[in-house]
Amino acid sequence: MTIRVSAVVNGRRRDVDEVWEGESLLYVLRERMGLPGAKNACEQGECGSCTVYLDGLPVCACLVAAGQVQDREVVTVEGLTDGESLHPVQQAFLDAGAVQCGFCTPGLVVAVHDLLGRCPRPDDLEVREALAGNLCRCTGYEAVLEAVRLAASRLGTDAAGAPDAGATRNAPGGSP
Amino acid sequence: MTPTGAAGATSTPTRADQQTAAGLGTSPQRPDGTLKVTGDFAFSSDLWAADMLWGTTLRSPHPHARVRGVETAAALAVPGVAAVLTAADVPGRNAAGLEHVDQPVLAAGRVRYAGEPVAVVAATHPETARRAAALVVVDYEVLPAVTDARAAMADDAPAVHEGGNVLRHLKVRRGDPDPHAPVVVRVDIEVGMQDQAFLGPESGLAVPDGEGGVDLYVATQWLHVDQAQVCRALGLPPEQVRLRLAGVGGAFGGREDLSMHVHACLLALRTGRPVKMVYGREESFYGHVHRHPASMRYELGAQEDGTIVYGRAETVFDGGAYASSTSAVVGNGGLMGLGPYRVPSVAVDCYGVYTNNPPCGAMRGFGCVQTAYAHEAAMDALAERVGLDPVEVRRRNGMREGDRTITGQVVDSAAPVAELVERVRDMPLPPVPSSHSFDQSPARDVRSLPGGVSNTTHGEGVVRGVGYAVTYKNVGFSEGFDDYSTARVRLRVVAGEPVASVRTAAAEVGQGLVTVLQQIAREELGVAAVVVEPADTSVGSAGSTSASRQTYVTGGAVQAACAAVRSRLLQRLETRVGPGGPWHLAGGAVVDAGGHEVASVVDVLGDDEVDETLQWRHRPTHPVDPDTGQGDAHVQFAFSAHRAVVDVDVELGLVKVVALDTAQDVGRALHPQQVLGQVHGGSAQGMGLALMEEVVVTDGLIRNPSFTDYLIPTVLDVPPMRVELLEYPDPHAPYGLRGVGEPPTISSGPAVLAAVRQASGLALRRVPVRPEHLTGT
């Protein structure tokens, strides 16, 4: 049996037919919508590499059944920017050297994007707690932490008086 | 470039006089970085082709069994299934392997480990393929399995392969064969099986070319050694089996062996359609080799002042069911088995053994990680016995330049063992929290305590410990291996600018080789624009991205190819303007010794291009004597030291690593930010083995094949890391560099173990340390 799934993905309505009902949101994004940015490292919600926004909340796309996103909004790493310039979180990952193999990077970028939207000036323990669901095997996290500090600093400077505006402008449905 | 908490590069700077923008010693952005942060970088699991099928693998549930028959009809009858293949469908030789060709592509008659591939299926949907695979009926006759490495060495043990279960026995003998010493310490220690746990699962896409050949896009560490094995299994020449590197989501040794390579090609050639295979995490635990578990018995004899007189070691590596790189792991575990110390008399026996456990092979640190736990535990035991502190005993016995290793090889570049341990000792220690009075100091945040947000302690029962380790590792392939790389460099004019193109088959696995190759070309050719082309088998072999060798060897090849291009370019100029010089290249121009422009590269080249391809080798290494293990087996050594600070909840057996600081001699940091990335990441992996990472295997079966049950360090587990890089150039190496990737993985774990030992007062002779080892429950 197959189903049709309709959702707004990265600001655009997408209708996908012939989805087997056992498919995850991750599979549909990667294999049916041409959005492979969310990654498939564990497919059981342990690694965070498939983190996407579902109605403004970060979720592991591997743990969401495709049918659950019917008529809802999804934003993936591909949807964080307008396609021309990098989001400050993405730029900070590059500048801090937080990207090695890069497999965890899209999930981490979304998780940090969410964190700084909720908490513009996190201390290191807050960052560590917020990112504890995102495994990275290459960096030992030092450069990731530096990237978060850098992004927080730049976002705070860029949006004086509204320190979280930059971090949330692309998040769908607002931020909690 | 220096992250908070890191002291950055220090000591003996070896910068070039004229620093090229984004050249060596700077930290330019990696060329694949933008694609990786936007999600547009194509990893091997992201590939897609029109009309493609999904492949899946059926694996043995038994560690040892005879395969009496495989019935595929029910699977083939499932709608959407295009092919079900078994050993009978392998057209070439049904065997693969890195050093010994002993592993069937698909099991033929016998399975030797639980997880061994028996059949492969291609279907229109991955779930269809999985369900069809479950319908394949395999008639197994279960056989007795040998799952203990020491038991496997017995004469009457079941033979995993013909010829006995001992795959390699390496003997190292040196000095007095019957030494005596006033102080003797003995340490027995066991190390469990670690998984590389790269995040990007084994995956790739095989595309048939319609003429009997195939293109395979795959994540690997060495395209050419894969190509040779795929060709052998398919019975096809290299021209018909073209490998192209797909995006690699980490490797750490786990991609040296074949995984889905031949299977996808078999299915693609049979069906005439592209076939994608992507392992799930559980299958990944069966789909690649692991770090060898090791059982070690060590003895050190010393003078009363702690000076080592002799060392004895017996190490048994469990190789599992197939050889993979066990022989070379045994080489490292034996030849460097006593650590970076002066040991006058030596008797080391190192074994690699076949069992019916999952196959073991390469993982970062490669034989040195396991033995480091033993020699560092023995050094701490010696220090305690003679009343020295752990730093002093290492200082006193540490190798220096000019010393000989236990194989008699002269260490002919820097060996700053004493300086490394002094440096980590002298780094600031994290403050010791008040342990007894909450009303005199603010309560500690539970996130910084053992148990973390589980809120298991507010400081009661928590004891701090500090531990040290210093280790060394060979860089590059050893024991006479013909270790070379190939580089093609072209220089031409594009849109009025000189552009260099670098082509190699070297695998970028995340470490940043592509950035370093750009830097080398910029430095050598003095041009800003350098394109590193995709890696594939259209150019000669680059050797493996392993053994911390790729910047050394492929970097050396690119340096040499650039020199050849530069020479041709200057010849062209000489032809035009007559002899001159000395000239070199900088800022897109040929300049004289005074830095004045003689001609622009654009003018010298015109519409032509200069194109050079060459092979480059490091100085040769040599096999060791089979009876004594003596010989110049290695090209370079890399040294590192760690100091770990831990808090141990001695009541619950929980450990929090508070600090993990390190000093490492890198020869020269070509890209300091990326070097730090290697040190940080390697340190975290080493720490993981000490405290939490183990593939639990009982009766030949993996009990925890998931990231729920196999734990790798999270950002809450890994502490801040202070790093000091020493830059003592190796005169034999390109730019003086030393391989950097593996050393931190070797010294970090033993330092953590030593710190836990100090905090708990327990001997702790098994790694990873589990709560029950600390509580005795």
Fold and architecture overview:
The complex is a heterodimer of chains A (176) and B (777). Chain A is globular. Chain A has six helices and five strands, in the order E-E-H-E-E-E-H-H-H-H-H. With 176 residues, chain A is α+β, with helices and mostly antiparallel strands. In chain A, strands 2-1-5-3-4 form a five-stranded mixed β-sheet, with helices on both faces. The termini of chain A are far apart. Chain B has 777 residues and is α/β, with parallel strands linked by helices. Chain B has 17 helices and 32 strands. Chain B is globular. The N terminus of chain B is likely disordered. Classes of the chains: A alpha+beta (176), B alpha/beta (777). Chains A and B meet through helix 2, helix 3, helix 4 and helix 5 of A and helix 1 and helix 15 of B.
Q: List the secondary-structure elements of chain A in sequence, H or E.
A: EEHEEEHHHHH
Note the total helix count of chain A: 6
Number of distinct beta strands of chain A: 5
> What Rg of chain B is obtained from the alpha carbons, in whole angstroms?
27 Å
* Spatial arrangement of strands, main beta sheet of chain A: 2-1-5-3-4
**Fraction of residues in H or I helices of chain A:** 25-40%
Average residue pLDDT of chain A:
91
Structural class computed from helices and strand pairing of chain A: alpha+beta
Instruction: Name the quaternary structure.
Output: heterodimer
Largest sheet: number of strands, sense, barrel closure of chain A: 5 strands, mixed
Q: Provide the residue-averaged pLDDT of chain B.
A: 95
Give the tally of β-strands of chain B: 32
What is the first-to-last residue Cα distance of chain A? Answer: 36 Å
Put simply, the count of helices of chain B is 17
Roughly what fraction of the amino acids of chain A lie in strands? 15-25%
**What distance separates the N and C termini of chain B?**
46 Å
Question: What low-confidence regions of chain A span 5 or more consecutive residues with pLDDT below 50?
Answer: 159-176
Percent of residues in helices of chain B comes to 10-25%
Question: Which geometry of chain A do the CA atoms define?
Answer: globular
How does the helix and strand content of chain B classify structurally? Answer: alpha/beta
Whole-number radius of gyration of chain A?
A: 16 Å
